[in-house]
Amino acid sequence: MEFENYFPVWNKLTENQKNRIQGSLIAKQVRKGTILHNGDMDCTGLLLVKSGQLRAYILSDEGREITLYRLFDRDMCLFSASCIMNSIQFEITIETEKDTELWIIPAETYKSIMKESAPAANYINELMASRFSDVMWLIEQVMWKSLDKRVAAFLLEESAIEETDTLKITHETIANHLGTHREVITRMLRYFQNDGMVKLSRGAIMILEKGKLEALQNA
To answer: For the segment 189-215, what is each residue's pLDDT rounded down to a tens digit?
Structure first.
């Protein structure tokens, strides 16, 4: 499938606007672990995922990471092109979590089209609202939910994404997603293991009792 099948407002653009996007569009195949956008870098552009998985995260002054949201097939990354939004800048890093195919719409191209096209501008507003909802949800989790509930929720989410109960993931990676220290995650997972919810092995976590994790998450 081609770009026009993935871009939601394609059919609402004029032929001239379509040609401008097609003429500037960049297709990329990116390996897992690649940094696509860094808050210190220039405005990258809108990223549209064809296949794969991206992670958007921020860094604290101490260098600790926390995941804001993740992007999958057909998702658009807006904050990699934050320069198209007046007076809004985001120090966000975008990294590939899996080998990924994507398109980049240069920021200046889309910004010029937004000035002419209400559907293109509305699409950006909808994306912005959706991403801010993701961030507000995260803030709510960090402020009001205990870490054991957040770890349980993360394991269940990861199991759903990977479609397996055996997760090939390190304690360090989980800590980076949740904005905490590896040692804290290790202690929490050992508690889960002692309670029969998971089984730990080198570089992997096997979920044994999803029902217990779900109960803990919702407690």
So the answer is: 999 999 999 999 998 999 999 999 999
